[in-house]
Amino acid sequence: MTKRDHFGSKIGFILAAAGSAIGLGAIWKFPYMAGTNGGSVFVLLFILSTLLIGLPILLAEFIIGRKGQADAVSSFKKLAPGKPWYLIGWSGFIFSFIILSFYSVIGGWILSYLVRSITFSVSGNSETFYEDLFNSVISNPFEVLAGQAVFIFLTIWIVQGGIKGGIEKASKWMMPLLLIFFLILAVRSMTLPGAMEGVKFLFVPDWSYFTWETALLALGQAFFSLSVGVSGMITYASYLPKDTKLGSSALSVSLLNIGISIMSGLVIFPAVFALGFSPDAGPGLAFIILPAVFEQIIFGQFFLILFFVLLLFATLTSSISMLEIVVSIGIKSKYDRRRRAAWVYGSLIFLLGIPSALSFGVLSNVQIMGMSIFDLADFLTSSIGLPLGALFISIFAGYKFSKSELTNELNLNKFLLNSWRIIVRYAAPIAIIIVFLQGIIKVLM
């Protein structure tokens, strides 16, 4: 039996954890959520939600993971023997399975667009070309399944290499490249004539958008973008040595997530405003509006390729964390089975994702609760699985550990420690329950 793997360095862990958080939530979902909810006000509420609610829950996952030194299920069993808390780990297993099944579909779309942009196939003269192209891509069963399969293969290939040789190694080169590409794209976007209108949209508040619904959406975005609630951070933190400072690591991950989210806005909105497009295009912003924007820029084809490479890296760093959750629970302490488990579970996730992949084409007429199969999978995870997981993780960490245990684990001063306990015991659960109920009511209505 091989020994349990560990991260080789603190920076490797931070980049891997940040990569888990910085995925489609930060680069795809954040811009269109900001675009449809007033821009700067949503950004402000998102930052506050991330630091005041998301960060404490992220730290709770770090504590559980490092103290448990095992997969999520085994960690809860070790920390609360004989109690049903380990079901939180199993819920993370199930919901990670579902998330990756439809997440890989979007990864396949990104690969399709990357190939098309490299072969100069993402350009047209008509106003409806880009929308027609997107609808054509997502409804083509062969293209979406091929893209999904390649994306899952890349995810499996990284995870089967282990923590240090696979996940950490991949994160150490993908994350810096992602940041470099972001800077290049942001600078290009902000140097366009009229780009400052997009910058104002992001940073100058229009308080008419300051509503209860906007606050709830920003809080939900904070949960989604930090990847809390499915035990992913518990899993990653279980590979940490005891001398790693959890507080500074959690803060670093949160700040990186906020920074990348804002940078994605600086890539998209200055260009959108400069070229006369609407910022409230919704989910199609990355696949419909941006290609049209880049076509009107000098060397736009190069920047479009760069954007989809960036988007692929961000999506992969999140997908490997989700597969790692599943694999770590599946193999338990039999670490020599990692390689086989990665291929088996990855293949099963691909099969589970086929209905989601086909839900915009041959299965477009299949509706469950008024939703497509793809949208149902998204709803079950982002509106039910993540909030409930975050709720129970927050309660467990808030009430299970004594002050002396927390002092040893966190190395925080008395004020910060007491503030953290108040948030995870009271403020975070209340906020999560409100977000959860809002999501359920929205669907039922």
Automatic annotation (TrEMBL):
TM annotation in the entry: 12-30, 42-64, 85-111, 144-163, 175-196, 216-239, 251-277, 297-330, 342-363, 383-401, 422-441
Subcellular location(s): the record lists: Membrane
Q: Per its UniProt entry, which superkingdom is the organism in?
A: Bacteria
Query: Which controlled-vocabulary keywords does the entry list?
Result: Membrane, Transmembrane, Transmembrane helix, Transport
- Keyword Iron-sulfur in the entry? The reply is no
**Membrane protein topology class:** Multi-pass membrane protein
Annotated InterPro entries: Na/ntran_symport, SNS_sf, YocR/YhdH-like
Question: What GO CC annotations are associated with the protein?
Answer: membrane
**Pfam families listed in its UniProt record:** SNF
Q: What is this protein called?
A: NSS family neurotransmitter:Na+ symporter
What does the organism's lineage look like at the top? Bacteria, Bacillati, Bacillota, Bacilli, Bacillales
